[in-house]
Fold this protein.
Amino acid sequence: MSENLIELKNISKRFGGVRALDSVSMNIRPGEIHCLAGENGSGKSTIIKVMSGVYTPEEGQILISGEPVSKLDPIKAVQNGIQVIWQDFSLFGNLTVAENLALNTYILEGRGRMDWARARKMAREVLARLDVELDIDADVETLPTSGKQIVAIARAILAEARLIIMDEPTTALTRHEVDALFAIVRDLQAQGIAVLFVSHKMREMLEISDRLTVFRNGKKVAEGQMSEFDEPAITRAMTGLELEEQPYVANISADTAPVLEVKNLCVPGIVEGVDLELRPGEIVGISGLIGSGRTELARALFGMENARADTFRIGGRDIFPRSVQEAIGLGIAYVPEDRLSEGLFLTQSIERNMVVSIMDRLRKGLFLDRKAMRSKTEDMFATMQIAAPSADTAVGNLSGGNAQRVMLGRWLLTGAKILILNGPTVGVDVGSKAKIHKIIRDLAHKEGLAVVMISDDVPELTGNCNRIHVMHGGRFVAHFEGQAMSEDQINDSLKALK
Amino acid sequence: MRRLQSTEAVIAVVLILAMVLIGLVNPAFWGVGNLFSLAKSNVIIGIMALGVLLVMISGGIDVSFPAIAAAALYITVRTMVTLDYDGVLLPFMAACVIGVGLGAFNAFIIDRFKMIPLIVTLGTASIVRGLVLGLLGTSIVNINKMPHGLIAFGSQDIAAATASNGANVGLTAMVLVYGAIALVIHFVLRHTMTGRSVYAYGGDPEAARRAGVNTRRTIYFVYCTAGLLAGFAGLLHSSMIWQANPRDFVGLELDVIAAVVLGGASIFGGRGSVLGTMIGVFTLVMVKNSLILMKVDTTWQRVVVGAIIILATAITAWRDRKKLA
Amino acid sequence: MTAKAENKPFFRRLLGEDASIIQLGVITLAIFVLMSAMNPDKFLRYYNFESITYVMPELGILSIAMMVAMLTGGIDLSIVGIANLAAITAGIYFRHPAVAEAIAAGGAGVVLHTIMGVLIALTVGLSAGLLNGILISRLRIIPILATLGTGQVFAGLALVLTGGPAIVGFPQTWNWLGTGKLLGIAAPFWVLIVVAAIVAILLRRTHLGVNLMLIGTNARAAVFAGIRSSRMILYSYALTGVMAAIAGILLSGRTNSAKADFGASYLLQAVLIAVLGGTNPAGGKGKVLGVLLALVALMFLSSGMQMMRTSNFMIDAVWGGFLVLVIAINYLRSRK
């Protein structure tokens, strides 16, 4: 008997010319909490898909309970107790909790009849096993994210999971909900179910996991007991770099007039009175959990929320942007969190993506001034050092880093004075990340932009900001500046939040 | 589920208010003759609406069912006339088979080529109508040629009464057929895994695939059943009006879709119920029929149907927006 | 040789950028050759092409209108209703005793009243389009249902206005728009060319056109980029409505009559031509040139089939079959 629940030996998987996995081996033992860490594009989502039978690797061997499995497909994976909880949960919002829980089981059993009584009984039992209370007759879409996650976990348990793989499970949870999730995970462990966390949040990994595997560029670069690692060691393994960015020192004299002054900004029910002052050349970080109101604050500054404030002064002028167009006109720019769904027009050219927000200004009579459009795009193309054949290339063909540079270029063209970045390097690989940071720092330092940087990534903030606010419950609850601005302090401050 | 029920309650309240109002304007509304004829008018639209309901729950839309119904009825009746056949069961089975076949064609194109159902079914409608009219001709099979068995079947009553003007009026037995079909569809949707798969697929096709739902089977089930109901309703209609017209049901898709939307089904899929649809059908048919009672010129009918669609969808859109806020 | 060398990149660019246009050109040519071969005496006659130029414009304009609605991922199922309502309203204006008298008197009054009638029809189209736009962009009703409903309302109003029978007896100048000639070319064809050119320029060269394309590509991103999405969508449906009214004018001018249920089969044909012309019904992609090519292809097809004495019903069936075929081809091509 092997002590491994699942063992992968020398797995390789290629997509076109790209080696997503390069002879990777890893194993998971029964009942352990294992963490798989890696940057975007490191191959961690590919390996999940290999384990769950979605992808078939070109080379290598998969052993489940010591037995080699040939051609693992999704059905075989489920039969062997491997369950994946995807980031979007794959639940049915229009169906009740009970039905969501019963559906898979019934389909697996090949039932023809929908047995509601049994479905509700199953739901009640499995939720009792997890020791959580949920209304089993509620439609799933009415539940908060944490509730949906519980339903997804319960569903995996009902499928007699021996290994539950969770893809970035903590991204959308508050600290409190993360604690509740960890309690459930420890409970699962006690019942002999192994859990594989796939995450890039080091602090949480350190907290919960027994063992760690780190991927970089399709290869396994580290593996071992969690106790053998500390945060810098994991970062080193993930990025392959010693990230020692010097804190950003803002190039401002004390008497520079603020470009933005906001007092007591409120978005009903979400942002409860925020004071913010920005000077040209500053990079101000905002850290906080999802649900802290940080995104809504950014949207309010960008004219997208039904917000009010006692003072809202831009460049010394009392004016409150009521629409995105007004905000842009006032020199505010916002790079949203989700670049793909909120930022870019993927099938359209780089040119159109860049000039979209200044098209009103590029007119010659009734028509667009195409020469001006082209020359502005070419300039920005060069400034941002975008790697693409031409400005006619569709943005969908660009890498994450280049795409993000297109976004930044768009806003620079508007002549923005205030740049709000929400998760500026989410989904960007390590090399590009540093380049984007440099661009942002240069914009602040040389061009005198005032930047607000919202991020989950604490080192990103400490490495690039001259001061940092910690946001919680719609308010700024802590403020760090200069020497006080260490990663540990901010993490401690975030951890203290309940 | 609970919200669905409340949607049904809202439409039911609207329906009752409309009935009271119409009754006040013209008390003849409550006459047994009018009520019986109202019930009769529900049958065909209702059966078709149940098919459209299935399609809408799956997240699709079907505008080809009137063409399918016309094709099924005309091909069947013309064949009967040619062969001088006078049965009932076999013709209805034939009409159903034609409906299923054409529904399967819809399903094939939608599933195989991943095209949006509106455009696919527009195309199917055009092909079916064109072929029927082009190959079989446009002549109407009148009562003197209609097979007697069909006429006898369609003329059965289950209840008779004397209207206020002294005429004898009957309640068509076809309402029982409608009721039975509704019960079956309700049972399938609510209590079988096939039915629940339709809701799951309409709610989130990708999640349904991951959960192991056979999505291809679901699509075929939905469009074939819609075709079957259309084919059946087509021949039933023919036997109730004692003639077979290949141009029947032109423009009916709008009424039926309006009724289903009115009944609370979501065009985005995943929501809708048999009861709601039946109430929606009843409301629409009643309003249309009562325009005459309310001394409104019949030419206004289409305007009223259009306004009902706009109103019903505007209210739904408004409700969903409030939920988002 | 040098000329060839210069041409090559141009062709390659054309091929690389727009395989669908090339594909369409090939289809059109194939249909042309096929129909010429099957009707050796009749198809290649000047008269045939001339008559096509009279019938084609109304459908062409409706198809371009449909394409514009599809750019933002919408659809306009009310275009035929708008076209008829616009023509009927103008017809009623011409029937007004005072107007009828002035027209009977002849002279400049006829032209003046015709212009007035055109303006009335266009206003009806604009208002109808604005109503669609408001329902879709402000009340957030999804386009299929909104235009399904308004289509009923417009057709219903047309019925109420006429009471059922067709309105006949339009002024001669009005009928000239549908049957006349200018510089040896059919007047309605000129209208089609002008409308097509304006829309083509609008889509490529103006703020509105590019914005519509971007909204259709990613509606959420459009909001974050500061595009006034709901206003742009409103404009697009207003434009669609106006184009439908123009089609209505041409149709009533050609047939010298207007009726509530004219041109019912145009709706499907407009959808078909738009999709065949490379418009993505999910939004973000559409070209006037593609729509025109598809239009010509289908016009050749139906005129050739008419020569072979195929019934109009069968032609409808063939068009439907063509739509399904195009869906299949587009799907197979996109998978490559």
Q: What stands out?
A: Residues 108-138 of chain C form the longest helix (31 residues).
